[in-house]
């Protein structure tokens, strides 16, 4: 996979906060809950660049965004959950070892109010909400997929101008199952709590069109003549997770989720309609009982 990344990107750097020689290692020893957060902070060490745009791995660029380099640190779009905080999925910054060390110090001494990088960065860049409106990126540069239905008229009016979509939430594009024949994700996409299916289909189309051929070139994926089909790859990718765990069985809680947590999600109307709680899985469970 790294070989394929090197085909696409100019520079690939491995970041490992568990390395004892890493400057974040000592901070991680004191605040182990901030492991992923401390990984993100490494972007300030890229001092070979004068200015950078950070983007989470669950963002997708829809059109050219080079104009972001005209912005200054720290420029970001408001978070849909609390607009006086910025969302840390996309932000403009200036690499600096001094800033990096200050962020590590803050992480060690105070931690993060939300347990993640967004809380820490909003504490460090606390003047973002009130000081300089020029550092407020328009929402189209970090369009939260889970907020599309909270203000549907606005999405209909301005959504076509979106430049970056951010797949916030537990379900990511690669967690869905994609049907390469119909060129669409499988499942009921009519529920208003789901992310916009057009963006999900676009993510998968990009993967099938641009990434799958590269995987085949490197022998990671064999062609149909040797028994492995592209459809099987998309099926496998749809079950990927950060932990590399195997997909859960229908209607069973995920390893990180207890039965009580799952029940609470259902009661709040946040069932995993496209995954474990999909109509197909519910039907299979019912059929099992009836039989």
UniProtKB/TrEMBL annotation:
- Protein name, as recorded: glycogenin glucosyltransferase
* Recorded coiled-coil stretches: none
Q: GO molecular function terms here?
A: glycogenin glucosyltransferase activity; metal ion binding
Its GO CC terms are:
cytoplasm
Give the function comment from the record.
Self-glucosylating initiator of glycogen synthesis. It catalyzes the formation of a short alpha (1,4)-glucosyl chain covalently attached via a glucose 1-O-tyrosyl linkage to internal tyrosine residues and these chains act as primers for the elongation reaction catalyzed by glycogen synthase.
**Tell me, what's a Pfam family for it?**
Glyco_transf_8
The UniProt record lists the EC number as 2.4.1.186
User: Which species is listed as the source?
Assistant: Mauremys mutica (yellowpond turtle)
Its localization reads:
Cytoplasm
């Amino acid at each position: 996979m790294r070989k394929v990344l090197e085909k696409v990107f100019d520079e690939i750097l491995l970041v490992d906060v568990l390395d004892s020689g890493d400057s974040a290692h000592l901070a991680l020893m004191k605040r182990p809950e901030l492991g992923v957060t401390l990984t993100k902070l490494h972007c300030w060490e890229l001092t070979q660049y004068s200015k950078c745009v950070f983007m989470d791995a669950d963002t997708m660029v829809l059109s050219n965004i080079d104009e972001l380099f005209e912005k200054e640190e720290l420029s970001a779009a408001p978070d849909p959950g609390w607009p006086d905080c910025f969302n840390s999925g996309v932000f403009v910054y200036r690499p600096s070892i001094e800033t990096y060390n200050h962020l590590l110090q803050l992480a060690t001494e105070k931690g993060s109010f939300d347990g993640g990088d967004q809380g820490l960065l909003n504490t460090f860049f606390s003047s973002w909400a009130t000081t300089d409106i020029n550092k407020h990126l328009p929402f189209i540069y970090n369009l939260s997929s889970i907020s599309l239905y909270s203000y549907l008229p606005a999405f209909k009016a301005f959504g076509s101008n979106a430049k970056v979509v951010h797949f916030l939430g537990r379900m990511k594009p690669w967690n869905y199952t994609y049907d390469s024949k119909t060129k669409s994700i499988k499942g009921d996409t009519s529920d208003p709590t789901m992310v916009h299916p057009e963006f999900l289909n676009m993510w998968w189309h990009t993967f099938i069109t641009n990434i799958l051929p590269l995987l085949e070139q490197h022998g990671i994926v064999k062609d149909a003549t040797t028994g492995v089909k592209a459809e099987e790859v998309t099926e496998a990718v749809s079950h990927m997770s950060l932990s590399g765990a195997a997909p859960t069985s229908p209607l069973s809680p995920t390893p990180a989720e207890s039965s009580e947590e799952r029940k609470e999600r259902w009661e709040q109307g946040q069932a995993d309609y496209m995954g474990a709680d999909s109509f197909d899985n519910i039907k299979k469970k019912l059929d099992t009982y009836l039989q």
